């Protein structure tokens, strides 16, 4: 086994807290939805029990309506803001009675993660019987999305907060912030005591983040009210691509399990409708790739980000569209001076290669793009992304995000945000084995 893989295993074992994993020490001290899912993919390669437990504990915090929260507050610590007392999930009548959580969600990776576990497993019979014990909860989660997050019945679900997107401070949201004027809240940030403030969102951005939550809380996190009132209401290509990918995995897994005709039929119906609307609504012909749709202000947000390419991971684009996407990816993000793939358009004046989701390279998006490009037959480009990902980790460590400019990597200081970050380790293990 390579030294780098050994180190990755160490990172994961260290962040394992007896039943679940934290994304990294200090900065993120609880269980996060999409982190947990991606972490499970890494564990599956060397400790399937932990992989299964990770998903099981996440689903244990599911609400009665199928909703899965973005953070499960599993311990009392004040090293994170905003904590459980700010989010107040108890306001929602169907929230978890067992755990304090947030009232927002994150990209629904669980479905495709279960399929990954099955693929990696050396004992498929055992893994499939585990999957049988949890799969209905994931189905219920998808049902929640299509029944509550799709007011126009299009097969596309909305997110009502930038933290739901996973791409927390993407420059795309600047357009939404321009439509808002939240109060100046007084609060004590914790993230900037753990990480250099220049790598994190600004105070004013946090005012916007908190304000949206206040509106949702005022209405006890009622989905209908949120759809009606939230200033942030976005159909996000990454979020919907992940849902579609997970939907497909559920179809495959239920088919393996057998006896679930009705659910399979429903999943197919959702799938068909979602892919159709996705292609009709989120593809921008002028730019040549997918973009975000602002459902509150009824307009496309015409920016290229790594999320623009995530539909490749879910098999959404036609071959022709994939070709156009690949061209943009190479032209904008693939120069020899760059590591792939920056999280935001390097040609934009909003691009910042050090600041969280405003430019740096993220391992989770790279992993999805690697998979997607392979599926579409672009093996040279997918290999480039795999090689770049391994190289930036090798040079800097298991950071949360990395500078996309190669020149910055000379002294091993181009890794930013949290160190010993779980999904960077987990997905590196998966990449090494792929
Ligand atoms: C943070 O605190 O920045 C988290 O990503 C929110 O989910």
Automatic annotation (TrEMBL):
Q: Sorted alphabetically, which SUPFAM superfamilies does this protein's record hold?
A: Six-hairpin glycosidases
**Ranges of residues in domain Mannosylglycerate hydrolase MGH1-like glycoside hydrolase:** 28-424
Superkingdom per UniProt: Bacteria
Gene Ontology terms describing biological process: oligosaccharide metabolic process; protein N-linked glycosylation
Q: Name one GO molecular function term.
A: Glc3Man9GlcNAc2 oligosaccharide glucosidase activity
**What is the protein name stated in its UniProt record?**
Trehalase
